[in-house]
Specification:
There is one protein chain. It is elongated, with a radius of gyration of 18 Å. It has 189 residues and is mainly alpha-helical. It has a single domain, classed as Cobalamin adenosyltransferase-like (Hypothetical Protein Ta1238, Chain: A, Up-down Bundle). It is 57% helix and 6% strand. A hairpin with a 2-residue loop joins strand 1 and strand 2. Helix 1 runs antiparallel to helix 4 and helix 4 packs antiparallel against helix 5. Its EC number is 2.5.1.17.
Length: 189
């Protein structure tokens, strides 16, 4: 099987039910989700040992769900019966975050992305996820989309923030506080 088809040489690409320009908002949205998925794969490759086995398993599941998000956005015309992303996926992310947040020290100030290479990579995932969410919001203003994709990406970026901190905790590396910040967070536990 050849990977190249030459069908996109004129700047068009196939979506489910038709063809659109390669810079269409729809392609930009699911393309950014694909970029995010690549960074998630990079994060998974940095998770060595049993200390990260649970996070590795979660991220592998998330990679499949990111494909589901892209699939839900790749239709010319959507119908709810074909949606893959649902509210239960968002709820599961919330449960995971609640559990991992128990491992993390309380936040008092904003933190800088960093610490370990794994934590830094998870912060990249967080920021690319936010960009993907913005692209999906833009797309949703232009056409009907599965609203659960937007909710999922919103929650997923929070999840990446939480586990970036967990990765530092498990590696015994402190978060880097933003030193110009006053105490902005109250005890939430």
């Amino acid at each position: 099987m050849k990977v190249y088809t030459r069908t996109g040489d004129e700047g068009q690409t196939s979506v489910i039910g038709g063809r659109v320009s390669k810079d269409d908002q729809q392609v930009e949205a699911y393309g950014t989700i694909d970029e995010l998925n690549s960074y998630v794969g990079q994060a998974v490759s940095l998770m060595e040992g049993e200390v990260f086995a649970d996070l590795r398993g979660n991220l592998l599941e998330i990679q499949h769900e990111l494909f589901d998000c892209g699939s839900d956005l790749a239709f010319v015309k959507l119908s709810e019966s074909r949606y893959k992303v649902g509210a239960e996926m968002v709820e599961r992310l919330e449960r995971w975050m609640d559990a991992y947040e128990e491992e993390n020290p309380e936040l008092e100030r904003f933190i800088l992305p960093g610490g370990t290479l794994l934590s830094s990579t998870l912060h990249v995932c967080r920021t690319v996820c936010r960009r993907a969410e913005r692209r999906v919001v833009t797309l949703g203003q232009a056409k009907e989309i599965n609203p659960e994709v937007r909710r999922y990406l919103n929650r997923l970026s929070d999840y990446f923030f939480v586990i970036a901190r967990t990765a530092n905790v498990r590696s015994q590396v402190p978060d880097i506080e933003y030193i110009r910040s006053k105490k902005v967070f109250r005890n939430q536990k």
